[in-house]
Amino acid sequence: MVSMSLGVRVSVCSYPSVALSSRDVSFPSSSSLYFGRKIHQSRFSIELKLRCNSNGTRRAKAVIKSSRVPELDSSSEPLQVFDGSTRLYISYMCPFAQRAWIARNYKGLQDKIELVPIDLKNRPAWYKEKVYTANKVPALEHNNQVIGESLDLIKYIDTNFEGPSLAPNSVEKEAFAHELISYTDSFSKAVRSTLSGDDSDAADAAFDYIEQALSKYKEGPFFLGLFSLVDIAYIPFIERFHLIFKDVMNVDITSGRPNLALWIEEMNRIEAYTETRQDPQDIVERYKKRAAEART
Ligand SMILES: N[C@@H](CCC(=O)N[C@@H](CS)C(=O)NCC(=O)O)C(=O)O
Known about the structure:
By secondary structure, the chain is of the alpha+beta class. The protein folds into three domains: 4-66, no CATH class; 87-160, Glutaredoxin, CATH 3.40.30; 171-295, Glutathione S-transferase Yfyf (Class Pi), Chain A, domain 2, CATH 1.20.1050. The chain contains nine helices and eight strands. It has a four-stranded antiparallel sheet with strand order 1-4-3-2, with no helix packed on it. The protein has a four-stranded mixed sheet with strand order 6-5-7-8, with helices on one face. The two termini are 35 Å apart. The relative contact order is 0.11. The site of glutathione (GSH) has 12 residues, from helix 3.
C-alpha cells in the first residue's frame, strides 16, 4: 500500500483550477493521469480533498492509494457464495483471469461485478469446495452458477451484461474472430517452444501470423478494426511475451512488425486494460524463476 499526501494552493475556489505539479509527485513510468474528481492510473488512485480557506483560496490535499483489493488466501473467511452477488474471481498475475477482468472493466461493470482476487499459491480451501471445483481462475459467480474458462467468460460477460459490445460487428468479422480465438492456445504454445529452446523458429512464425492478422481491417489498429474480444484474448499473453523476449532473448518482437507495434501502443491507451497490467519486472522475474525450476 502506497500512501502519501501533498498540499497544493490554488488561487480560485473552482474545482477545475486545481493543478498538481509533477515535481511534487513521482509515478511509475507506465502510469497515466486523468484529472478530475478521482484521478486513476494503473495501480493507484488519487483522491483530491479541497478545503476553502477564509481568504478565498483553497487548499487541496491529494491522497494516493493503491486501488487493488488484497488477495484472499487460506486464512480468509469464506464468502457468502450464491448470496445474489456477482463476483469475478481472479489472480492478479494470471493472464487468463486478466482477460475476464479487462472485459468487465471495458464494459464499465466495476459496480456490478465485484473483483475477488485469490492468492493461488496459498488459496483458500473453500474456493474449490464452495465456488469452483476446477480450483482455477478466472471464475464468475452469477445468477447462482459459476462459469469458468476465460474465452467463454469474455463472451458471457459481453452477452449477459450492459456496456459497449465486444462482439464482431459483421458476419465476416465473426468468422475471422473465430479463427483468431481458435489460434490463441497454439500461439502461446509456439512462442513458448522458442523460449524453451525446442523450436527456434516457432515464435517468429506466430508473431508474423499476428502481424498479418492485424493488417486485415483498416478501420482501426485492432484485430477486427475496432476493439473487440479478440484483442482481449491476446493482450495478456502478448504483454508478457513482449517483456520476456526483450529481457531474456534481447529480441524486440515488434521490430519489423509495425502493426503489432501500433496495436500494443493503442492497447496501452485503453484504461480497461492498463488497470490490469502487472509490474513488468514481476512478470520477467516470475518467468525466469519458472524457467529455472523447469531446468532442474
Ligand atoms: N483454460 C483456463 C486456464 C485457467 C488457468 O490455468 N488458470 C491458472 C492461473 S493462470 C490457474 O488457476 N491455475 C491453478 C491450478 O491449475 O491449480 C482458462 O482459459 O480460463
